[in-house]
Amino acid sequence: CVCVCVCVCVCVCVCRLFSIKTSFKNPCILIRIWKDCVTGLSREERAFQYVLTHATPGDPDSILDTFDVWCSKVEFISNIGPKKGKILDRLLMEHSPLTVLELGAHCGYSTVRIARSLPLGARLYSIEMDQRNAAIAEKVIRLAGFDDDTLRSDYNLERLDFVFMDHWKKCYLPDLQMLEGSGLLGKGSIILADNVLFPGAPKFLRYIRKSGLYEWKIHRAMLEYSKGIRDGMAELVYQGIK
Ligand SMILES: C[S@@+](CC[C@H](N)C(=O)[O-])C[C@H]1O[C@@H](n2cnc3c(N)ncnc32)[C@H](O)[C@@H]1O
């Protein structure tokens, strides 16, 4: 352990000394790589191991709380977290959507959060491009007691009532335009997009301001599991083609 720590410190110093512009300048990334090597697990898998051994199966609240403990005390992963999660919960309660699309499931934290707020008979479609994360998300969803089949059912879909965007920020705008073109958005469909202020999605915000297709507002909140970084979620209500 000591040797690895010394190596990490030397790497950081060398990178800083020569102003090497690599991610290795960030000691957190080096520590994460070191943890990945030592445990043989990704940080998402480490979080899942903790949830598996500490949360109550079949209890979504317990699963979310256990994730929050891990992410705030041990190792950050980019779940929406409890504060912005409450904004998501409130909007879902207010609108009771029957068809929901989530872009970016990561470990399934927000998926479980959404699923527990949906009315009976609602359908949630969740998309995750990273196979390792998707495998974790499936296990987390099953652990929470939500039927995995809801993710796999045939996509016989006519309208999306609610879309939660929390994938790569540069995909927000093209994916929103793709949804507009698909005809799946109807008057009153809600789109909630996370992290529009940090890391930020300026092209997306510029578009929704100009397009005239949405009524929208920003819910300001701190970045998940952080105290000092300001972030926000954009809530859009689709007004239909004018
Ligand atoms: C910020 S994390 C999502 C956190 C999750 N919504 C939560 O709160 O628990 C972003 C995730 O989006 C996924 N992602 C990025 N671009 C994507 C895309 N185009 N399609 C599907 N998933 C994507 C990444 O692999 C990553 O797991």
Automatic annotation (TrEMBL):
Taxonomic source organism: Astatotilapia calliptera
Keyword terms of this UniProt record: Catecholamine metabolism, Endoplasmic reticulum, Hearing, Methyltransferase, Neurotransmitter degradation, S-adenosyl-L-methionine, Signal, Transferase
Domain of life: Eukaryota
Alphabetical list of PROSITE patterns matching this protein: SAM_OMT_I
Matching PANTHER family: CATECHOL O-METHYLTRANSFERASE 1-RELATED, TRANSMEMBRANE O-METHYLTRANSFERASE
SUPFAM superfamilies the UniProt entry points to: S-adenosyl-L-methionine-dependent methyltransferases
InterPro entries linked: SAM-dependent_MTases_sf (IPR029063), SAM_O-MeTrfase (IPR002935)
A single MF term (Gene Ontology): catechol O-methyltransferase activity
UniProt KW Signal keyword: yes
Subcellular location(s) per record: Endoplasmic reticulum
GO biological processes: catecholamine catabolic process; developmental process; dopamine metabolic process; methylation; sensory perception of sound
Name assigned to this protein: catechol O-methyltransferase
GO cellular component terms listed in the entry, alphabetical order: endoplasmic reticulum
Keyword Transmembrane: no
Catalytic class of the enzyme: transferase
Documented EC number(s): 2.1.1.6
Signal peptide: 1-17
Pfam families on file: Methyltransf_3 (PF01596)
